[in-house]
């Protein structure tokens, strides 16, 4: 019996730089609390300019999780947070009732022509927390558990796995880990969360002996413990957690429109009106912004 429920191939997009979108998908709207997954880059950016910087924009009802493989990005938000993120660290921004942030490419990264590549995720907040106060936390690479398991380097970013626990504080049961496999290395995927998926960012790998193409998201059967085997050096992300909670009508599906995630349509309509009217707290020192889409 296959350990894979769904196999999702990336959809290429250009948002000023290349991204490959895996979630949401027609096959899976969410995996645990994760409702959005973009693999961005690798991309190099024009020196001495702000081309492809992500100008201030709003979010509600979610937490953004940024993890880089290479390069660097500069985060600024309406709370006054200013944080450079580099490979191996985790930026966690909880939008709650609403927050504005920008993501820009540092000038030294542009000038050096360094490639920026990484994973950007959205985690839907549980119903009781979707209107919470916004917050931002940064976790350096050194505080996140890392160990060797056979031919794999395991970097635990969020949650618990194989007797280790990440210090990253989240609102619901969440699992997120970066896996780097040596050529010839193997790793048995633990049943560490009720819902799980593996994203093959790069490399030649098999799962239980079946070849998997790079830039594929594999949604796993609950409880399955398949074996990854790398025929070349490979990079993967393991993600999941508890299913999204629902209301008394059942179901945990969230609505998504632009940068907004919510359990009810009226929350999204209110956020649209607030952004249009300039009622979100702006990013200090920033005057640019991304306007509300017309659609």
Description:
Residues 176-280 form the Pirin C-terminal domain. Belongs to the pirin family. Keywords: Iron, Metal-binding. Its cofactor is Fe cation. The protein has helices at 107-112, 265-277, and strands at residues 4-9, 11-14, 18-23, 34-43, 54-59, 62-70, 73-77, 82-85, 90-94, 99-104, 116-124, 135-139, 146-149, 152-158, 160-161, 164-165, 174-181, 186-188, 195-202, 205-207, 210-212, 216-220, 227-230, 234-241, 255-257, 260-262. With 295 residues, it is mostly beta strands. The strands form six sheets. Strands 1-22-19-24-17-14-13 form a seven-stranded antiparallel sheet, with no helix packed on it. A hairpin with a 2-residue loop joins strand 25 (255-257) and strand 26 (260-262). The N and C termini lie far apart (43 Å).
């Amino acid at each position: 019996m296959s350990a894979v429920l769904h196999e999702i191939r990336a959809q290429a997009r250009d948002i000023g730089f290349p991204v490959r979108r895996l979630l949401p998908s027609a096959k899976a709207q969410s995996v645990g609390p994760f409702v959005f997954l973009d693999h961005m880059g690798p991309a190099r950016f024009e020196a001495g300019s702000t081309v492809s910087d992500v100008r201030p924009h709003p979010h509600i009802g979610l937490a953004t999780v940024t993890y880089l493989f290479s390069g660097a990005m500069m985060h600024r938000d309406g709370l006054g947070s200013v944080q450079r993120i580099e490979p191996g660290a985790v930026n966690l921004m909880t939008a709650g009732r609403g927050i504005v942030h920008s993501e820009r490419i540092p000038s030294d990264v542009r000038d050096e022509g360094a490639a920026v590549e990484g994973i950007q995720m959205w985690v839907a907040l549980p119903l009781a927390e979707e209107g919470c106060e916004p917050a931002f936390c940064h976790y350096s690479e050194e505080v996140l558990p890392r160990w060797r398991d056979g031919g794999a380097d395991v970097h635990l970013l969020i949650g618990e796995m194989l007797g280790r626990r990440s210090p990253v504080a989240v609102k619901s049961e969440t699992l997120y880990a970066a896996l780097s496999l040596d050529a010839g290395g193997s790793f048995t995927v633990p049943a560490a969360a009720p819902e799980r998926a593996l994203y093959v960012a790069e490399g030649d790998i098999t799962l239980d002996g079946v070849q998997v193409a790079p830039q594929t998201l594999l949604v796993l059967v609950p409880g399955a413990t398949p074996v990854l085997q790398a025929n070349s050096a490979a990079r993967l992300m393991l993600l999941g957690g508890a299913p999204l909670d629902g209301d008394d009508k059942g179901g945990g599906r969230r609505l998504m429109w632009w940068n907004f995630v919510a359990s009810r349509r009226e929350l999204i309509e209110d956020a649209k009106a607030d952004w249009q009217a300039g009622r979100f707290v702006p990013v200090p020192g920033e005057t640019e912004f991304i306007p509300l889409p017309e659609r």
